[in-house]
Amino acid sequence: xxxxxxxxxxxxxxxxxxxxxxxxxxxxxxxxxxxxxxxxxxxxxxxxxxxxxxxxxxxxxxxxxxxxxxxxxxxxxxxxxxxxxxxxxxxxxxxxxxxxxxxxxxxxxxxxxxxxxxxxxxxxxxxxxxxxxxxxxxxxxxxxxxxxxxxxxxxxxxxxxxxxxxxxxxxxxxxxxxxxxxxxxxxxxxxxxxxxxxxxxxxxxxxxxxxxxxxxxxxxxxxxxxxxxxxxxxxxxxxxxxxxxxxxxxxxxxxxxxxxxxxxxxxxxxxxxxxxxxxxxxxxxxxxxxxxxxxxxxxxxxxxxxxxxxxxxxxxxxxxxxxxxxxxxxxxxxxxxxxxxxxxxxxxxxxxxxxxxxxxxxxxxxxxxxxxxxxxxxxxxxxxxxxxxxxxxxxxxxxxxxxxxxxxxxxxxxxxxxxxxxxxxxxxxxxxxxxxxxxxxxxxxxxxxxxxxxxxxxxxxxxxxxxxxxxxxxxxxxxxxxxxxxxxxxxxxxxxxxxxxxxxxxxxxxxxxxxxxxxxxxxxxxxxxxxxxxxxxxxxxxxxxxxxxxxxxxxxxxxxxxxxxxxxxxxxxxxxxxxxxxxxxxxxxxxxxxxxxxxxxxxxxxxxxxxxxxxxxxxxxxxxxxxxxxxxxxxxxxxxxxxxxxxxxxxxxxxxxxxxxxxxxxxxxxxxxxxxxxxxxxxxxxxxxxxxxxxxxxxxxxxxxxxxxxxxxxxxxxxxxxxxxxxxxxxxxxxxxxxxxxxxxxxxxxxxxxxxxxxxxx
Length: 762
Hints:
Residues 39-274 form the Glycosyl hydrolase family 92 N-terminal domain. The chain is of the alpha+beta class.
């Protein structure tokens, strides 16, 4: 793995040349020939409800440095939406693609003149600390962001290392350069907060920000070093100016002045973060960014992104698909994000500092989303990172008593349903990943599966979650628990723990209880085994008020990825199963006015904009009809992903939406939640070369491939006929050459026989 600090040092000599470039250049001037970052468009997903982060960061970095808009609300949970033309400043932490807002911490705003210390109101810049901007002045590439602030006539450039945000501000002549440090503003979804700012000397300002929001106990420490001496300061709790060189307040601001100059002036600032202490933030700064070469740092960020994007090299004449693909791959590497310092210290889930012996600690685990495709993708192209991810989750178990559900900056949010942490750990275990304690992992999975929280007590008692015991989301909870139970059962089987296997494999069959054989839907059931009375409407959805999570019966009926064969049996055979599955993609009905906005990207009632549907297309090969999967995969790739700002059909969900595109465009997808195999769909590109680590590559070739030729006719693995409609993880990771012969009509032989179809493990 390339060391980021070495990149900075090696590229420092470029600084003198690149510093002469205009502050709002396109960014392409520093991209080397063949760099894949040129194919990334970070604007994709900034419109619609994509909620993606826009700004400067490095792969999996702790810092996500970018603009935060004045607006707040659901479409601003990342801090930025393409519809907005306001900027309150540049914050150092942002989420990407979530449905809940948080972070937006440590905001800096370069300005001139006098401003009011407040967020402000739309339509009147004098009401607060913000500026309008013209999007024509924005320039964005992986690791780099630039914009012109119209109100203050200031050019801004941003880049980053893993733990340090690097700002460059260019002021016009005859102005007094100022910077506002704003610890009041966040994303706007938090309650209690506190900021502390200390002016240490004429170039260093340090402090912390505490907030209580989605993450109930977040504290981030920082140190900021300026390239010019600070000649004047004003500290304020909102508009009340305070004396001295330090302030601790719920709404803390610091105005830093740099003196009048006659010519164009540049002020740079490096802001290092730490979850542990100001001292650690200073260590992070010294280790990652001791110098002031902005151009070399920007180049290093680009090189870091290019190194990771090079993990998959595609060949295609479709330039739009290429842009979508590399943007998707880029989006899968914004999080999980580093949550430890250069000395190995991190803030634990017990809110006590701990120290790592080796590796990195991570946070931002959106596991209900990412267990489905993002983590399986990581197990292919970033297998070397998986041990640190798993070890982070095992530390969370040791510190809070269970594996993470949805973990954010050291806090368990318990967001969404099920036990997705079990699934991700089991996936790594079953795939033979080394570098973590297997006994501890098994203990963590078992203990987490035997808790009594979030409906697990009813799941243990009844074998499913009854709606009269758990009033909301009972079906979704039971189905997700069952998926985790199956994953744990497979690990127990591998370890020879027969008693545990028998117990958890039985619990994994919870879907049997919900299946209504007359209506052929999974429905709410009470503790006596009776279906919910009254009129049953499979289209209707009510957010946080019915038996499903962000969905309806049409969508949740298929949430049995771990036992597709057993699920088919409930329908009375493959023909009836296929007929029902076919209908999913064509039926239309009213979801109701209380439906979750997450139910989006509809093809019939298939909802690609929400994760529980993501495996459904790939159920067709289990019933011997892989050509139908090919049709729906191509349709989804073509209609649910575009190169426009609203190019995602739902929230990005911390990489999951994009990971589906990456895997599906390569030609396969992992349906079984842990361990594989990968089911073939329809490869989109003529050729793709996937770096597997340890010098191995997998070459994927689709012969005679086109929009019309979307059906797999034959497959060869390393030159030998391959008759299965899937490939195991083990065979995939051996590398070699996997060839698909494509045609314009469904094959009458490929994937049809019982021997060639995937089968759910028991």
